[in-house]
Design goal:
There is one protein chain. 61% of the residues lie in helices and 27% in strands. It has 209 residues and is an alpha+beta fold. It has a 5-stranded antiparallel beta sheet with strand order 1-2-3-4-5. Helix 1 runs antiparallel to helix 2 (43-54) and helix 2 (43-54) runs antiparallel to helix 3 (56-69). The chain starts with a helix and ends with a strand.
């Protein structure tokens, strides 16, 4: 009976040991797969972790080397730039320019519309001052006309100043007729087409050319 109990105990211990060994093998396999994946993704990181498992001292040394490899000067420089940009963003003068831009950008479309009206008046003035020349028996004249404002944009410069930009077409037309009166009523012929861009700045509460 005692002998039977001894055999049962030995058998039970063997099972426990086998299960323990099996668990260790599974863990070892998982660990191997993990290390392999780390090596594939990042050799330097995998080597560092492998070194950490092998020896705490070597892991500490690897961490020190890794920290040294990342340039402290570069980190300090980047941090300094970020702080400088943040300070510049919230300094009183920059905040003032940001507020100016909100007002300026809201008023710029109206400025563009007014500019378009000015261009129309300029075209009307050009037509009223036509100068005719006799050429091959015909009266001829040219004048400048303007299209509608095609683009009206405002933005801030790097320093925060308000900048406005508008674009329109500028045409030169040619008139011809047997007399000045006939030429004035003739259909104008476009002989050139220029895309013009005007740049403006906001100063003292107004848009300036």
């Amino acid at each position: 009976h005692s002998h039977m109990l001894t055999l049962v105990r030995i058998f039970a211990i063997e099972i426990i040991v086998m299960v323990f060994i099996g668990t260790l093998e599974i863990r070892a396999a998982v660990a191997t797969l993990a290390i392999t994946a780390l090596f594939a993704a990042s050799p330097a990181r995998a080597q560092s972790q492998a070194a950490a498992q092998a020896s705490p001292a070597s892991a500490l040394q690897s961490a020190t080397v890794a920290g040294a490899s990342a340039s402290p000067t570069a980190k300090k420089k980047t941090l300094r730039q970020e702080v400088k940009a943040l300070v510049a963003k919230y300094e009183p003068e920059r905040l003032k320019r940001d507020l100016e831009f909100k007002k300026a950008s809201a008023l710029f479309p109206g400025f563009c519309h007014h500019w378009e009206q000015d261009l129309h008046e300029r075209e009307t003035n050009n037509l009223s001052k036509l100068k005719f020349n006799l050429k091959d028996g015909f009266e001829t004249a040219t004048y400048t006309a303007y299209g509608k404002v095609a683009a009206c944009e405002s933005h801030q410069s790097k320093d925060g100043y308000s900048i406005g930009k508008l674009t329109y077409e500028e045409f030169i037309y040619y008139l011809v007729g047997k007399s000045e009166d006939e030429a004035r009523h003739a259909s104008p012929k476009a002989i050139s087409d220029t895309r013009t861009t005007e740049i403006f700045r906001w100063d003292n509460g107004k848009w300036f050319y």
